[in-house]
């Protein structure tokens, strides 16, 4: 799929997934896309774990308490380390956001569905930390987002975006 097609085709999918496994080769391409993202001062604060072991992905899925996300046959877990970039500045949030978007575009380009699941796992119940513990992630590394990966079993919805003219201009604000 062409890059611009993938950018506009990407959407947050919240339907059930088909059980068909995602080949390792595809998971590696998605992981590499995440790692190829830019990072502030090249600190490379983001790392990733792909989960394709059926029992493990099911276990993580039950922690999510969402039948839709939990039905995915694979997932990419996004990890971050809060490294200082320079002085007291950190860019780890920007770093992992760029990595996630790259991963989502790769997922879309390969014909799979996903959703950036961050709010759900970083709320007060700390599902992300519980998942990190299951995956053996050390305490100083945070699991900040979960990207289910798989083929759509349902239609799914597409949100409406505001018109171009309401959010983008040339040569000045609202010109
Ligand atoms: C930082 C961030 C956190 C998100 N967390 C969740 C989440 O926990 N659960 C969820 O269903 N969607 C989550 N999303 C997806 C957004 O709801 C979604 O991107 C938005 O509704 C726009 O829809 P689109 O992705 O289809 O363009 C998150 C997106 C971002 C950028």
What does this structure look like?
The protein has a single domain (15-153), classed as NADH Oxidase (3-Layer(aba) Sandwich). The mean pLDDT is 97. It contains 8 helices and 3 strands, in the order H-H-E-H-H-E-H-H-H-E-H. It has 175 residues and is of the alpha+beta class. The radius of gyration is 17 Å and the shape is globular. The longest helix is centred in the middle third of the chain and has 18 residues, at 92-109. A 3-stranded antiparallel beta sheet has the order 1-2-3, with helices on both faces. It has helices at 3-9, 24-35, 54-64, 67-70, 92-109, 119-122, 127-134, 164-167, and strands at residues 46-51, 74-80, 142-149.
Q: What brief labels describe this structure?
A:
single chain, 175 residues, alpha+beta, NADH Oxidase, three-stranded antiparallel beta sheet, 8 helices, 3 strands, 39% helix, binds flavin mononucleotide
Q: Between the first and last Cα atoms, what is the distance in angstroms?
A: 34 Å
Question: What sort of overall outline do the alpha carbons produce when their principal axes are compared?
Answer: globular
- Under the CATH scheme, the architecture is 3-Layer(aba) Sandwich
Q: What fold name goes in the CATH topology slot?
A: NADH Oxidase
Radius of gyration: 17 Å
- Relative helix content: 25-40%
What structural class is derived from the secondary structure elements? alpha+beta
């Amino acid at each position: 799929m062409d890059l611009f097609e993938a950018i506009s085709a990407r959407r947050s999918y919240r339907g059930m997934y088909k059980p068909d496994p995602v080949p390792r080769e595809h998971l590696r391409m998605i992981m590499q896309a995440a790692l190829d993202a830019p990072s502030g001062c090249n600190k490379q604060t983001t790392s990733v774990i792909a989960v394709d072991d059926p029992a493990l992905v099911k276990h993580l899925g039950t922690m999510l308490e969402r039948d839709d996300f939990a039905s995915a046959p694979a997932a990419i877990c996004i990890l971050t380390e809060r490294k200082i970039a320079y002085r007291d500045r950190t860019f780890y949030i920007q770093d992992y956001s760029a990595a996630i978007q790259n991963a989502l575009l790769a997922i879309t380009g390969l014909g799979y569905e996903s959703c950036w699941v961050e709010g759900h796992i970083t709320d007060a119940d700390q599902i992300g930390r519980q998942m990190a513990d299951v995956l053996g992630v050390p305490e100083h590394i945070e699991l900040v987002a979960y990207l289910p990966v798989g083929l759509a079993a349902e239609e799914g919805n597409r949100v409406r975006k505001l018109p171009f003219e309401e959010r983008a201009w040339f040569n000045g604000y609202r010109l």
